[in-house]
Amino acid sequence: MILSHAAPVFVLGGARSGKSSFAEKLVEASGLPMHYVATGRAYDEEMRDRIARHQAARQGKGWTTHEEALDLSGLLRRLDAPGRAILVDCLTLWVTNLMMEERDMAAEFAALADVLPDLKAQLILVSNEVGLGIVPDNRMARDFRDHAGRLHQIVAEKSAEVYFVAAGLPLKMKG
């Protein structure tokens, strides 16, 4: 599968579904200069280890990594250029960061939605699908699930292609 257009590609899946690997392969197959936008913050030791493993896996493969926890739309504008591939991994970590900083979710989502159609770079966005399980038992978890679901609808609508990955198998849902 080779990227052939500048419209966004959206890759969803559950934890350890293979979505990030699938998205990375899409970018690597493009032959374009590769930029990795990491949205995760290390709130604890386990997350620090996870981030370090992800960084080590990309080491020496031609990726340029950019860490951005909050201003995703601003970073995408700054990185944008024709003939470049940008992978954002992942939107649900971005949602967590926004919630922890008590940001205006609707405004942040609107800013991202506004930038997506104008990008000239090939953009691949990765996110965890969190709406397929039981209703969470606490307010914050329910708010997170609801914010992620709304963001996913916005990004899917703006994307040329949408994939759902389960057990390492991508299912094309749009495009």
From TrEMBL:
GTP binds at residues 13-20, 38-40, 67, 89. It holds the Pfam family CobU. GO terms for molecular function: adenosylcobinamide kinase activity; ATP binding; cobinamide phosphate guanylyltransferase activity; GTP binding. Keywords: ATP-binding, Cobalamin biosynthesis, GTP-binding, Kinase, Nucleotide-binding, Transferase. Its EC number is 2.7.1.156, 2.7.7.62. It comes from the Bacteria. The active site is at 54 (gmp-histidine intermediate). GO terms for biological process: cobalamin biosynthetic process. It is an enzyme of class 2 (transferase). Pathway: Cofactor biosynthesis; adenosylcobalamin biosynthesis; adenosylcobalamin from cob(II)yrinate a,c-diamide: step 6/7; Cofactor biosynthesis; adenosylcobalamin biosynthesis; adenosylcobalamin from cob(II)yrinate a,c-diamide: step 5/7. It catalyses: adenosylcob(III)inamide + GTP = adenosylcob(III)inamide phosphate + GDP + H(+); adenosylcob(III)inamide + ATP = adenosylcob(III)inamide phosphate + ADP + H(+); adenosylcob(III)inamide phosphate + GTP + H(+) = adenosylcob(III)inamide-GDP + diphosphate. NCBIfam families: PRK05800.1 (NF004469). Catalyzes ATP-dependent phosphorylation of adenosylcobinamide and addition of GMP to adenosylcobinamide phosphate. Belongs to the CobU/CobP family. This is Bifunctional adenosylcobalamin biosynthesis protein. It comes from Sinorhizobium fredii (strain NBRC 101917 / NGR234). The gene is cobP.
